[in-house]
Amino acid sequence: MKKVATFRCRDLGLECDYEMQAEGEDELMKRVEGHVMNAHEMDVSKEETRNKILSAVR
Ligand SMILES: [Zn+2]
Predict the structure, then answer these.
(1) Taking the model in full, what pTM does it have?
(2) How many domains does the chain have?
(3) Residue 11 Cα, ligand 1 centroid: separation in angstroms?
């Protein structure tokens, strides 16, 4: 059984109403990376950035 993971840009302190849900963190990461790259110029290929996003996932 997979848990539903939720990411909100606001949890990263960004002024953005983007919110995404997916079953599991891996799937969520795939869905979120396009948005954070285009809208916030965050490089998700960097370990540091991925960790930052994952720490905001709940
Ligand atoms: Zn955003």
Answers:
(1) 0.88
(2) 1
(3) 10
CA distances from 53 to 1, 23, 40 (A): 23, 16, 12
Tens digit of each residue's pLDDT (9 = 90 or more) over 6-56: 999 999 999 999 999 999 999 999 999 999 999 999 999 999 999 999 999
Q: Which two tokens stand for residue 57?
A: 């996932």
DSSP state of 57: -
- How far, in Å, is the centroid of ligand 1 from the Cα of 40? 6
Query: Distance, CA 29 to ligand 1 centroid (Å)?
Result: 13
Domain hosting 10: range is: 4-56
